[in-house]
Amino acid sequence: xxxxxxxxxxxxxxxxxxxxxxxxxxxxxxxxxxxxxxxxxxxxxxxxxxxxxxxxxxxxxxxxxxxxxxxxxxxxxxxxxxxxxxxxxxxxxxxxxxxxxxxxxxxxxxxxxxxxxxxxxxxxxxxxxxxxxxxxxxxxxxxxxxxxxxxxxxxxxxxxxxxxxxxxxxxxxxxxxxxxxxxxxxxxxxxxxxxxxxxxxxxxxxxxxxxxxxxxxxxxxxxxxxxxxxxxxxxxxxxxxxxxxxxxxxxxxxxxxxxxxxxxxxxxxxxxxxxxxxxxxxxxxxxxxxxxxxxxxxxxxxxxxxxxxxxxxxxxxxxxxxxxxxxxxxxxxxxxxxxxxxxxxxxxxxxxxxxxxxxxxxxxxxxxxxxxxxxxxxxxxxxxxxxxxx
Length: 390
Fold this sequence. Notes:
Distance between the termini: 44 Å
Radius of gyration: 21 Å
Order of helices and strands: EHEHEHEHEHEHEHHEEEEEEEEEHHE
Largest sheet: 9 strands, mixed
Structural class: alpha/beta
Number of helices: 10
Strand content: 15-25%
CATH architecture of the largest domain: 2-Layer Sandwich
C-alpha cells in the first residue's frame, strides 16, 4: 500500500509543469524491482500562481487538482496538503519558503534558496526552528547515469589524490540580443548574483556533497548584453551577470587542489549543458549532458599506459524504472529520479540509494561562495569563503 503525498505547487511555470509531468509518470518507477518500490506516490492537489492563465494548464491536465488560487497563503492553509514544491523568482523565496515551513509543510524549493545570503540565512533559521519539516533544494543533474557513476567513484575513494575539479552549467538562451528583458536580468528580482544564482547550485551540488568545498575564490564575471527590448518599444538595461568563471582552491593545506566552476547564460552552441570533470592520481572521469550516454574515464596505476576510455552507458538509474537498459536517459528521467529521492527521504527517513537532493546547508555554502565571488569581482582580489555558518 503506497502512502499518498498531497503536493501543492507554488509557481506554475516551466518547472512546475515538469514536476506535474514527473508525478504523472510515477508508475514509470519499477515497483516490481528488488527494492520493492518507494511505498509513496505524489499527487498534485493544489496550484498557485499570480496569474490565473498559468494555472489553466494544470486544471486541464491534472485531474487531482482541486484548488487553484492566486494567494499562496490559501494553499498553505489547506490541512490536507503535505508538501509544497515552490518555483518562483528569487526575490519571493525568503517569504514564501519561511511561510511554507512555518505552516508545517515539507518543502522542495528551487535554487538559489533566497535572493542573497541574508535571505538564505533567514530560511535556514526557519528550518532550524521547525525540525519536523523536511526541506530540500531541487537539483536534478547528478541523477544522470554518468554523473551518478562519478558520484559512486567519489564515495568509494577511487580518484586517489584529487588533482583538480571542473564543473559547469552552460546554455545559450540569452545569446540573442533581441530576446526581451525578463526577471532574471534585474537585480531586484534575480539578485546581484546573476547567472550564479540562476545556475550555480546545479554546478556546486556534487563537489560540495563530496567535501570539495572552496577555501577561496577569484571571480571573473561578465556582462555581455547590456540592454534588451523592454516589450514597450524601448530598451531596458540588463543589470545582472551573464557569465561567471570562479577559480577556487579546495581541500586542506596539505592536499589543496584547484576547482574551476562556471555558469554561463551565453555559451554559443550549448542548449543546456551540465558537466563535471574530476582529475585524480588513480582515476579521472568526465561527464557532460551534451553526450548523455557517454562517460569518459582514465584509470591509472604506476606503469600503466595513460589512455582515456569511453563507456556507452545503458539506461541505469538511482531508482529502477521500467525503461529497458538499451534506451537513452534524458532530462525528464533525471527529474523523476530527483523527485523519487525527495519523496523517498521524506517518507522513509533516508534514501534507498546513497545520493539525496541538495540540502539547505549546501545552499548556504553556495551563497557564501557567490557572495565572496561578488566581492572578488569588485576588488579584483582572491577572497576567502567562510567555511561554516557563524
